[in-house]
Amino acid sequence: MSSSPVRPRGAKRNRTKAALIEAFWSVVDELGFSAATLEAVAERAGMSRGAIYSNFASRADLLFAAAGARGLKINRDFSQPGALDEKLREFAKDLVEILPDAPATQLWHAELLLHIATKPALKAQVAEGFAALFQVMASQLEAQHQDQLAISAGSLALAIQSLTMGLVYQAILSPDAVTEDVVLEAFAALARGAVR
Q1: What is the DSSP string of 156-189?
Q2: What is the DSSP code (8-state) at residue 46?
């Protein structure tokens, strides 16, 4: 007697989400972000609009999940113990590893930013997402380095993100200028300035 393998309960949900994200990008690549309505994505995926709402709370959530799937994977976890300068050096080295992939994100990222800029509710949701990210980073930084910081942990979290995104955008515009040495020096300077 043979039995079929038991699949984890979330496996189908993960496949459905992946299919919807793939359909979203298919529509965006062909027609742009504005054309990636829930109806268009559902039709492209061969699913109902209800399938989207079963997996994503809103079109914005689908958009953010899709951007996360295609975007650069930047690890902003600062929860581990260790000296701030060493943590930022490791962070910088990880960033150097992914910067060569930045130019491939240029077109869709520019269109995404324009799309967000024209939708006030979406812009507010992005701001909320970043506020939550900064809060997590600040909590981790404060837990590890509170007695050493010359600036607030929240300001340091924002500075790390701003420096990171500035280097990513510069790597898109002039990849030869954003060398490993430049990235490491920039984060070393941030580490020196952030501690007493």
Answers
A1: HHHHHHHHHHHHHHHHHH-TTTS-HHHHHHHHHH
A2: T
Of the pLDDT bands very low, low, confident and very high (cuts 50, 70, 90), residue 8 is: low
User: Length of the chain in residues, anyone?
Assistant: 196
Determine the Cα–Cα distance for residues 127 and 147; give it in Å rounded to an integer.
29
Cα–Cα distance measured from residue 88 to residue 77, given in angstroms and rounded to the nearest whole number:
11
Give the model's pLDDT for residue 9: 63
SS3 assignment, position 195: strand
* Number of neighbouring beta carbons within 10 Å of residue 137: 21
Quote the CA–CA distance of 37 and 49 in Å, as a whole number: 10
Distance CA(87)–CA(69), nearest Å, equals 25
Q: Give the mean model confidence (pLDDT) for residues 37-59.
A: 92
Q: What is the pLDDT of residue 111?
A: 87
Coil, strand, or helix at residue 149? strand
Percent over 90 (pLDDT), the chain: 76
Say if residues 41 and 62 touch (Cβ distance below 8 Å): yes
Q: Are 157 and 141 spatial neighbours (Cβ–Cβ below 8 Å)?
A: yes
